[in-house]
Amino acid sequence: MILKLILLGIVMVAVYKFVGGTTALSSSEKEQSENDADALEECHTCGTYVTRRESIIVKGKYYCSKECLPG
Q: Low-confidence residues of the chain, pLDDT below 50?
């Protein structure tokens, strides 16, 4: 009986590794983070809309370029 449980465990780990070690939940989280990166934010200085991926974030505020940074 113990041998069957050990073999079952080995098979389950092998299948998990073969599938890539990801679950449906983690792939949906990945999609959500990609969608967040494509969301538009308004530049705090000039008002231009820029994606979060391309923006510069300083103290929680979004900026479209180095020229719009405070300082």
A: none
